[in-house]
Amino acid sequence: MFRSDVVGSRLRPAFLKKAREQHEARQIGDAEFKSIEDRAVDEAVELQRQAGADVITDGEMRRYAFYGHLIDAVDGFDMFGGWAIPFRNEKGEELVLPRPVVVSKLRRKRPLCAEEFTYLRARTNHPAKTTMISAQQAAAYYDGKKSAGAYPKIDAYLADLVDILRDEVEELVRLGCSYIQIDSPQYAALLDPQLREGYRQRGNDPDRLLDISTEMDNTVIGHHPGVTFGLHLCRGNNQSRFYASGDYGPITKVFERTRFQRFLLEYDDERSGRFEPLGRVPEDRTVVLGLVSSKKAALESKKELKRRTDDSFGVHLSRETCAKPAVRIRFDDRRQPPEGERSGSRAAPGGGDSPGSLELRN
Fold first, then answer.
1. What's the gap between Cα 251 and its chain centre?
2. CA–CA dist 94, 345 (Å, integer)
3. Angle at CA 122, nearest 5°, toward 349 and 129?
4. Cα–Cα distance list, 265 to 115, 130, 183, 215, 292 (Å)
5. 102-120: per-residue pLDDT in tens?
6. Counting CB atoms within 10 angstroms of each CB, which of 148, 186, 330, 360 has the fewest?
7. Are 191 and 137 in contact (CB under 8 A)?
8. Pairing state between β 74-78 and 101-108
9. Beta strand 85-88 with 94-97: parallel, antiparallel or unpaired?
10. 66, 60 contact by CB (below 8 A)
11. Any bridge partners for residue 95, and if so which?
12. Letter string b/e over residues 100-130, b meaning 16 or more CB atoms within 10 A of that residue's CB
C-alpha cells in the first residue's frame, strides 16, 4: 500500500523547453535532444527520491502536454485545431487553451509510453508509475464537423482509440510496468453545465458519454493481475487556472462501474465540493485525496491536512485513503508562457511536519 502518491507531471525546466524549440526548428538533432530529455528525467527522478516519494514518475518530461504522448505517437490529429476551452482563476481571469482535433483516420506510428517507462525503470528501484490519457479525455478531440471526413460518427473514432490505448497497456505490462495511471480530467467537464453544452454542440451526448466512458476505461485496462490501475480525476489546471467546479456526485458511476483500484482525486479547495460522493467508492478501492494544492503559494500545514483527511473519513471509513499533491497537469508550452509560481507536484523531504512526509491512516 502506497501512503502517498503523485499525479505524475512536473513543470519542465527552462533548458528542456529551449531544447524542444531548437529541435522543432531543426537546430539540434534527435540524439542531442534525447540526451537533454534524459537529463530532465534524471533530475525529476532525483527530486522525487530525495523527497521520499513512495512512487516515482518521469515527470512527463518527454511530452509537450500531458496528452502529448497520444498526439505525437498517433497520426490523425490536428494539434491545435480542436475545441478551445477557457481556464479561469478565482479572480475570473481567463486563458484559452487550444486542443487537438481528429481530422483523419488514426494510425499508431510508435508506442505511446514505452520509452518513458523503460528509461524510468532503469533509473530507479522505486515503484515506477506510467501515466496515459484516457479514451474519455480524447473523446473531446472529436468534432462533428471537423472530424466527419474521417469519422462520420464518434463511435468509430472511439473504437479505434480504445484499440490503440488497450494495446499500449498490454505493451507496458509486458515491459514490467506494475502501476499505470489513466488521466481523465475531462470527466470533470461532465460536472459543468457550460462544458456539457459544449459536448452537445459537437455532436456528443454528455450523459451517454459518461456511460460509454466507463465501458471504454474497463476495456482499455483489461484484466492484468498484479498490475495497479489508477484513475486521475481533476478539474483541469493550466497555469494555476481551472475549467470546471463541483463535487464528484454527478459522475459517481465512474467509482462504481470501473475496475480501477485507485482514484486520484482533487480536494485542495472549495471548488472540489463535498466528500459525500466518496461514499459511493467500493470498499476494496483506494482514494488518493489530493489535498496539497499546486495552484497557490501558501504551504498547507500538517494540522490542516490532517483535519481535511479526518473530514473525508466520515464518508469513507472503510476504504483505504492516502495523500498526494493535488493536480499538476502540464499543457502545451509552445503556446503558453511558463508558469512562474510553483514547480510541479510538491513534495518535501521525508521527516518533520512537511506534507510530503505526512502518513495518513484510517
1. 17
2. 23
3. 60
4. 27, 17, 11, 20, 11
5. 999 999 999 999 999 999 9
6. 148
7. no
8. antiparallel
9. antiparallel
10. yes
11. 87
12. bbbbeebebeebbbbbbbbbbbebbeeebbb
70 closest CA partner among 183, 237, 173, 179 = 183
Give the angle subtended at the CA of 328 by the CAs of 311 and 78, to the nearest 5°: 135
Q: In this structure, what C-alpha cell is assigned to residue 340?
A: 512562474
Sign of the torsion angle spanned by Cα atoms 337, 133, 88, 202 = positive
Residues 324-352 have pLDDT tens digits of 554 333 333 333 333 333 233 333 223 32
Distance of alpha carbon 319 from alpha carbon 277, whole angstroms: 13
Give me 215's grid cell.
465501458
Instruction: Report residue 264: phi and psi, to 5°.
Output: -95, 105
CATH architecture of 14-357: Alpha-Beta Barrel (3.20)
Angle of helix 14-24 relative to helix 30-51, nearest 10 degrees? 160
* Domain coordinates in residue numbering, the chain: 14-357
In this structure, are residues 325 and 290 in contact, taking their beta carbons and an 8 Å threshold? yes
Phi-psi region of 176 (alpha: psi -120 to 50; beta: other; left: phi over 0): left
pTM for the structure as a whole: 0.83
Backbone angles phi, psi at 280, to 5 degrees: -95, 0
Lowest mean pLDDT among 85-94, 187-196, 267-276, 287-296: 85-94
